[in-house]
From TrEMBL:
Coiled-coil segments on the chain, per record: none
Keyword Transmembrane helix: yes
Sequence ranges assigned to domain EamA in this UniProt record: 13-136, 148-277
Entry's transmembrane regions: 12-29, 35-54, 66-86, 92-109, 121-140, 146-166, 178-198, 210-229, 236-256, 262-280
Any Pfam family matching the protein: EamA
Protein name: DMT family transporter
Length: 286
């Protein structure tokens, strides 16, 4: 494995650690998800805008790319909102792990969106991730909120997979921070009505945590993830990114005292195995 490939794999894992803070913060912030995501996007837009200006990156988009990047912002917003609803209905494990069916969805959608060759190995590894998630989920009882949380998490996964595929062909032309800035701009504008529809009382005391969400999870984590997509296929990046729930569960143990059982350990081991296999495959194919 080359030094560059090792560094790229470490970078995507650091990105996933940052992004995984969304589980704990999403559970802790006591606001309607649409309001939280609207404020998060506005703050992230400001942070990313300052970073882009400081680095001297261009904000200019080719006319042919505007629609795809705008749509990716819409799907990113839908992904965030549904993910936070899933977290509020369950716990960090259920919320994050139901979301992490998205590598399976990506492996099925990538040949359609990007006209790439279908890989049976990607499908097998995706199935392995799905089996791992089955063991991680504590309950599939239709009479409790966990089942609804899983359904909403699956919708969030679909939105995230589509978002990643939409930006895949555009990332090579633009800096990742610029793409993320446009996505947060779209989301911030899209969710302006949420402030008038939902009760946002008490949002001031939640601002420090939403600020952390904007800086660590969004500005740093998601931008680094966008950079990683440039170095791997969307499916490879998605599968290697499956380590995120493990980081999220560890943070849940530390900050929320959500202790996983043996099913979580078994499921997490299956996911980590698929991550290692895909990392090795990706390094050989680079």
């Amino acid at each position: 494995m080359s030094n560059n490939t090792t560094r790229h794999i470490l970078e995507i894992n650091l990105a996933m650690l940052f992004v995984s803070t969304s589980g704990v913060l999403g559970r802790y912030i006591d606001l309607p998800p649409a309001v939280t995501i609207g404020i998060r996007s506005f703050l992230a837009m400001l942070l990313l805008g300052l970073f882009v200006k400081w680095k001297g990156f261009s904000f200019t988009l080719a006319r042919k790319d505007i629609l795809a990047i705008a749509l990716s912002g819409v799907f990113m917003g839908l992904h965030w909102i549904t993910y936070f609803y899933s977290l509020q209905l369950s716990n960090v494990a259920i919320g994050m792990l139901s979301l992490f069916t998205y590598p399976v969805m990506t492996s099925l959608l990538e040949p359609v969106f990007l006209k790439t060759q279908f890989s049976k190995m990607h499908l097998l590894l995706g199935v392995l991730v799905l089996i791992g998630i089955y063991f991680l989920a504590p309950s599939f009882d239709t009479e409790n909120d966990y089942f609804l949380a899983i359904l909403i998490g699956l919708l969030s996964a679909l939105c995230f997979a589509i978002r990643n595929l939409l930006v895949k062909t555009k990332i090579g032309s633009y800096n990742g921070s610029v793409v993320m800035w446009y996505q947060t701009l779209v989301i911030a504008i899209m969710l302006i009505p949420a402030y008038f529809i939902f009760d946002a009382e008490g949002f001031v005391k939640e601002l420090p945590y939403i600020g952390m969400l904007a800086l660590i999870t969004t500005a740093l984590g998601h931008t680094m993830f966008l950079f990683s997509i440039k170095r791997f296929s969307v499916t490879a990046a998605s599968l290697m990114g499956s380590v995120q729930p493990i980081y999220g569960i560890i943070l849940g143990i530390i900050f929320l005292n959500e202790i996983p059982g043996w099913r979580t350990v078994l499921g997490g081991s299956l996911i980590l195995f698929s991550v290692v296999v895909e990392s090795l495959r990706a390094s050989r194919n680079k």
